[in-house]
Amino acid sequence: MTRIQANLLLLLAAAIWGGGFVAQSTAMKAIGPFWFIALRFAVATLAVLPFVLLEARKAEVKTSARHARLYVLTGLALFSGAATQQVGLQTTTVTNSSFITGLYVVFVPLIAVFFLRRAPHWIIWPGALTALAGIYLLSGGQLSALTSGDLLTVVCAVFWAIQITLAGTTVSESGRPLALAATQFAVTTVCALAIAAAVEPISLSAIWAAGPEILYVGIFSSGLAFVLQVIAQRYTTPSQAAIFLSSEALFGASLAALILGESMPAMGYTGCALMFIAMLVVEIVPGFVRRRLPAI
């Protein structure tokens, strides 16, 4: 596969994820957020299982008790991120959700600083400040104008960053990315199902009404896009991958405007632009600097 082909696959994955924000929003006209999470990740688990079996045949490292614990912890982080994002979509727009969620790119290195005690690249701090400025402008210059959904989505981005950090550690130890994917999907399904059964009504007609969104997000956003990302990132650079995957927010906002008719004032779009810039520089600048440094 050429680098151009790989980058086009990453762009397709980002477009699928962007469409997922619209599907998550429209599904809640018929079904509660936790039932939606439970059903989408149940579908995702089934979609990934065949690949897990193929992976198991070639696995060089046996799954240990430590790996199993890490799988479950990663699943709990995924559930927390999915829950705060989905509930947040009840009181925020798809455009806001897609851009604020993307701030996990900024939070991942910050988590490495505070919890893994890793020295940060200098770009992290101006990137974080740029992201905060973006959120401020997104609120119209008044933080009180941020909805509860916006704030929940910020929390969601933190949980995504924790999930990414745990997933990176787990895959490096186990060498089983698809086993991790299936396990974290299953853990999320069980957690969401437990809450949904206790607090949300459900009916077959509601499931049927939300069926297209459940299948889209379960099969395409969680299954196909994940596989495309894993394949494509083998044939391109991390910085280029970051650029194409970060376009998820742009696709989410564009599809929200096209399908849902969402819009915002100029200040809000400026805030989105600042958050997007923060996502890119945090990913691109460290790799660019490493390539410029002379070999010792």
From TrEMBL:
Assigned keywords, A-Z: Cell membrane, Membrane, Transmembrane, Transmembrane helix
GO CC, any one term: plasma membrane
Domain called EamA: residue spans: 6-139, 148-282
Record has Ion transport as a keyword: no
Transmembrane feature ranges: 33-56, 68-87, 99-116, 123-139, 151-171, 178-199, 214-232, 241-260, 266-289
Major subcellular location class: membrane
Topology versus the membrane: Multi-pass membrane protein
InterPro entries: Diverse_Substrate_Transporter, EamA_dom, EmrE-like
Presence of keyword Transmembrane helix: yes
This protein's name: Drug/metabolite transporter (DMT)-like permease
Compartment(s): Cell membrane
